[in-house]
Amino acid sequence: MADPLRAGIPEAVRALRAADIRVLMITGDYPSTAQAIARQARLAEGTLLTGDALAAMTARELRACIAGMALLPLLLGWPVLLPMHIVFLELMIDPACTLAFENHGPDPDSMRAPPRAPDAPLVGGAALLRAGLHGIVALAHVIAAWLWASGALAPEAARAFAFTALVGANLALMFAHAARRQPNPMLWMIATGTLAALLAVIYLPALAAVFHFAPLSVAQLLAGAGAGLSLAVWSLLLKLAQRLR
Q1: Which of 52, 115, 166, 227 could form an S-S bond across to 145 if both were Cys, CB 3.0 to 4.6 Å?
Q2: Can you give the pLDDT of all 245 residues of the chain as single tens digits?
Q3: CB-side neighbour CA atoms (13 Å) of 115
Q4: pTM score > 0.70 for this model?
């Protein structure tokens, strides 16, 4: 079985490098598979960096390699995100992108908005700044949740608390970006399924053991979710500031 590259990828990599842009490939493939794909993309002269190599790196080396909640725990000695945590987040984010957003109609007032300039970039500076601010604020919320939980709860419970905040922050971002759009039943279905799955991995012993979680009290669960969901307040304030401007 083979999943070949799209046509034009080697040329695109060559053009990026000519523009002095560093090109990286991040994949969950087996290392030899990743190297074969990298050769097809003309990335063969690059360095292959595996999870084992990351674990053996010093803090200085890590700073040069890795984005956020994946880096800070390694630098500060906090419990890191495990592969199952990443899989859980992907099972929430990917359906939201493909089922809820990509298949959703345009904003109701799109025909009343001024037209885009023909030479305007697809993703402008304002959009990048807004996305960056959302990411920074989400990171701050999750770090604050972890800092509180690490001093008040056992390690496994603290991890569950911080992960609940992380899931809540992602849900808040999803709904914040869908706020101006038409009602989206699929988004609510994804959110409901995500919350049900979160309860399962926290309170079902077999799943909790895989995720290295410990059960939270109802108050702790609501506090963790609230820490993440409160990100929606910042998003609404940002939108209000844009409208006033």
Answers
A1: 227
A2: 667 888 888 898 888 888 888 788 877 778 888 888 888 888 866 677 777 777 777 766 665 665 655 556 655 666 556 778 888 888 888 888 777 777 766 666 777 778 878 887 777 777 777 778 778 888 888 888 888 988 889 988 988 999 999 999 888 888 877 755 566 788 888 889 999 999 999 999 999 998 989 999 999 999 999 888 887 777 677 667 766 76
A3: 3
A4: no
